[in-house]
Design goal:
This protein is α/β, with parallel strands linked by helices. It contains 15 helices and 24 strands. It folds into two domains: about 100 residues, Immunoglobulin-like (Sandwich); about 350 residues, TIM Barrel, CATH 3.20.20. The chain is about 30% helix and about 20% strand. The chain is globular, with a radius of gyration of 25 Å.
């Protein structure tokens, strides 16, 4: 025992003073293609400000988990300050929309429901007071960036919120109220309403339209009518865009970038508008981002472009870059987006590790996905068929998500197995329970997520590198990444036997290389082209020590 430990100490010292070589583990380089994104419903995550829990007289009784529960922007900031996200290896926080929501409620057949989820916009130029103020958002951005975390804002152009006695219908040159979508082809997916009483923005409108009088009256009461009108005039003079609904909303959304320094957009209901809407949004977002960067020299944004992630419901990575409407196919990667949410992962994850990892690596490194990626997930706010709805395979779910090629989305509570079936809840409310900050039952699972997440954060090769199997029994693989001056390589083993075994590393690591297992905190020295692994964890996450 003593001689082995002494050998490793001398080996480590020799590594520290050896000449630099390829594939070391220097400070991690951020790559959106490897990003770990933590997605949360603002209202359900953490309530740090009890004073903003009720606004606009939203006092009517709702069905269970269909009203506002108090979560807010300050709650997110507090958890950054407590290092919660950092311990998970999170690179990006995506929270549900925080613009002003409808004031009334609707009954969708599942009981009275307020716009707690943030997807029923009323005013794109204002903050929803239940979630916080502009000052709260500014503080969140500051704290996030200081902690090397980027912020992805959830945005909507496709629709307004439902019509209620408190929320009037937008003018007929702004929205359509019929027909309802039947999803037979592009026309019946785009030129229609998603559901009944969800007015659809006329993103295909070509004629100038006036601002809704109700919106102008609201701005006047709030003392900002002239300011808003002046800003719109400057925007339309600069761009020469027609004064149509899509461009009004694009202006309003990109103002959040100019004012707060938002790093990226997660875009809602992408396939329900014309594809060129997103080209326009991306163009104006990049301009706004550059304007922000010119005025605010933040290290986290150096050499970064604005990032656009699209939600095209039912898009699947393994189908390639095109989405098939039936009558036409659209490549959204060529229409403003750098990444798409991969709805196929939840099904693909039922494969074994190698089939999953190999297919994803080959697809993402094919020519058709050049400069593009996807974001994988195991559960979300509106997917009733997650990978593991009963939370019975939590460790497997974490391992497959965090080690798969592509971006990874942790949905709040995945890391503690927050229930996705809740007594008394109906429909998607089951997926939107409160985050349990007192949960100690799943401590071991949380530790597992943290080990995977921090290893992933430190190694762009995991999500953005190329995958190569080196042993099927026991199962082990390497991921390698080269981009500019950044080079990274890791060795990972899964479902490992509870006894010593040898792995041949001749083609990937050199004799004398010292590898460190971040999962069990053990050192391994490469000798004769191999290492002898001895772990009781069933998993190794090996990185090459710096030279």
């Amino acid at each position: 025992m003593f001689s082995t430990q002494l050998f490793l100490i001398f080996a480590l010292l020799s590594q520290l003073f050896a000449p630099a070589q390829k594939f070391n583990t220097s400070a991690p380089a951020f790559d959106w293609n490897n990003a770990t994104v933590y997605f949360l419903l603002t209202d359900r995550f953490n309530n740090a400000d009890l004073s903003n829990d009720i606004n606009f007289m939203r006092n009517d009784k709702t069905a269970y988990l269909r009203g506002f529960e108090g979560g807010d922007i300050k709650g997110i900031t507090k958890k950054i300050e407590e290092k919660y996200f950092q311990r998970l290896g999170v690179d990006v926080i995506w929270f549900s929309p925080v613009i002003e929501q409808i004031h009334g409620f609707v009954d969708e057949g599942q009981g009275n429901t307020y716009a707690y989820h943030g997807y029923w916009p009323r005013d794109w130029t204002a903050m929803e007071p239940n979630f916080g103020t502009a000052a709260d958002l500014r503080e969140l951005m500051k704290v996030a960036h200081e902690n090397n975390i980027r912020i992805m804002m959830d945005v909507i152009i496709n629709h307004t919120g439902p019509v209620t006695p408190k929320d009037p219908l937008w003018p007929s040159d702004w929205v359509r109220t019929e027909p309802q979508c039947t999803y037979q082809d592009s026309e019946t997916t785009i030129s229609c309403t998603l559901v009944k009483n969800l007015p659809d923005i006329l993103t295909n409108q070509r004629q100038d339209v006036k601002l809704p009088e109700k919106l102008k009256e609201k701005w006047e009461k709030e003392g900002r009518l002239q300011q808003e009108l002046n800003e719109l005039e400057v925007f339309f003079q600069r761009t020469s865009y027609p004064k149509t609904p899509r461009y009004y909303i694009i202006k309003w959304l990109t103002d959040f970038i100019r004012e707060f320094g938002i790093d990226g957009f997660r875009v809602d209901t992408v396939k329900h508008t014309e594809a060129d809407v997103w080209d326009d949004l991306d163009k104006e977002a990049q301009i706004a981002f550059q304007e922000w960067k010119d005025k605010n020299q933040e290290p986290i944004q150096k050499n970064q472009d604005f990032f656009m992630l699209g939600e095209v419901y039912n898009y699947n990575l393994l189908s390639g870059p095109l989405f098939d409407f039936g009558d036409i196919k659209v490549n959204y990667f060529e229409n403003g987006f750098q990444s798409m949410i991969n709805f196929g992962f939840k099904g693909d994850a039922h494969q074994d590790y190698e089939d999953l990892f190999n297919q994803y690596s080959e697809k993402l490194h094919s020519e058709s996905f050049k400069n593009a990626t996807v974001m994988n997930y195991i559960s979300s706010h509106d997917d009733a068929y997650p990978f593991d709805v009963d939370r019975e395979n939590n460790f497997e779910a974490a391992t497959k998500l965090m080690l798969s090629p592509g971006m990874a989305q942790i949905y709040y509570g995945d890391e503690i197995a927050r229930p996705l079936k809740i007594n008394g809840a109906t429909g998607d409310a089951n997926l939107r329970g409160l985050m349990n900050w007192n949960d100690t039952i799943h401590r071991e699972l949380l530790v597992h997520w943290r080990k995977l997440g921090t290893f992933r954060k430190n190694h762009p090769s995991i999500g953005a590198g190329e995958h190569r199997i080196i042993s099927s029994q026991p199962y082990a693989f390497v991921r390698s990444y080269v981009k500019g001056s950044v080079q990274d390589r890791v060795l990972i083993g899964l479902d490992l036997p509870q006894k010593k075994f040898t792995l041949n590393l001749q083609d990937y690591f050199a004799n004398g290389d010292l590898l460190f297992d971040k999962y069990s905190e053990q050192y391994y020295q490469v000798a004769n082209g191999s290492i002898e692994i001895d772990t009781k964890a069933g998993i190794v996450l090996l990185e090459r020590m710096n030279r």
